[in-house]
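Hey Z.,

So I finally got round to the adenosine-5'-diphosphate thing we talked about over coffee. Here's the setup:
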Amino acid sequence: MKIIDEDLASRVVRLRPGKSHKGTYGRILLIGGSKQYGGAILMAAEGAVMAGAGLTTVATDPSNVTPLRTRLPEAMAIDLYSPALFDQVAKNDVIVLGPGLGTDEQAKNIFAKVLETVSKEQTLLIDASGLTLLAQNRELISRIKAGLVVLTPHQMEWQWLSSIKIADQNDQENLKVLASLFSEKVKNVILVLKSHRTRVYDLAGRVYQNSAGNPGMATGGMGDTLAGITGAFLAQFGPRLESVLAAVYCHSLAGDDLYQDNYLVLPTKISEHLPQVMKRLSLSSKNR
Ligand SMILES: NC(=O)C1=CN([C@@H]2O[C@H](COP(=O)(O)OP(=O)(O)OC[C@H]3O[C@@H](n4cnc5c(N)ncnc54)[C@H](OP(=O)(O)O)[C@@H]3O)[C@@H](O)[C@H]2O)[C@@H](O)CC1
Ligand SMILES: Nc1ncnc2c1ncn2[C@@H]1O[C@H](COP(=O)(O)OP(=O)(O)O)[C@@H](O)[C@H]1O
Ligand SMILES: [Mg+2]
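And the result:
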């Protein structure tokens, strides 16, 4: 097992080249946010914008569009239930599917259709309700065509998908079940198993453990924020394991900075602090 640390993250978060534009930093589409869970997709979108995605679009319930535009004018918004959703899916490098999507029949239909629309040139990150829907409909795994799939479950979501009880979730079991669920169907899969010390796995059998993070981060929406940040890192730094590792680390490093002076750390504060954390990493000795 390897450790995810500052050294590793600073190899990914480099100084930006002067000759660049928004397209250089990737296009990300976040899909989720039912009437009930609008906050989840707002927090994911805020994570994506503040982590540096070049262009961020959100597909959500119409009731969330005005709050989103008010809070985050940098993001574009479309109606989750409009057929235009699938044109948008085709236009983006990274699709984040699931934060606050809900698990009713309409959500399931959208989930299944997006899953099979994402092409092999694109990355699909599945989080939250998306993971619950996948666990309830495992036959959908064979319809995934995405070039890279990133799963970001907490331990219970992983239990639902893998059938491994939380107490039995060790590296060997996690790798075995990840392979049995995906290796025949999807070539490139990364599992981010979230906990107080998040571990990251891939189909090559690599295992990494996060060295940052704190209990002040145990607040609803913290995972939704990580989904947005990870999507933005994949869009910006490329569809590879290192982008995911750096995202996990930066999310927690921002949390640790804030925890020094605060009893608890809000997800939106992590997003707000992220550009500073990324600047610091980009100026570290490895990058100069
Ligand atoms: N502001 C908003 O709009 C927010 C919206 N959100 C959206 O809500 C949707 C539902 O997501 P969710 O995570 O709240 O509930 P769900 O998937 O049913 O899991 C709960 C079950 O899992 C367990 N459990 C949880 N964490 C665990 C862990 N680390 N390790 C182990 N177990 C853990 C937990 O156990 P317990 O807490 O009872 O101990 C319980 O049994 C989703 O779409 C999300 O995006 C939220 O993000 C919040 C902010
Ligand atoms: N005690 C803790 N120490 C470090 N990180 C934590 C702790 N509790 C929660 N986290 C982090 O917060 C996030 C929680 O994700 P998740 O359960 O999906 O939240 P939500 O669905 O409410 O957005 C994960 O990134 C996890 O690693
Ligand atoms: Mg979650």
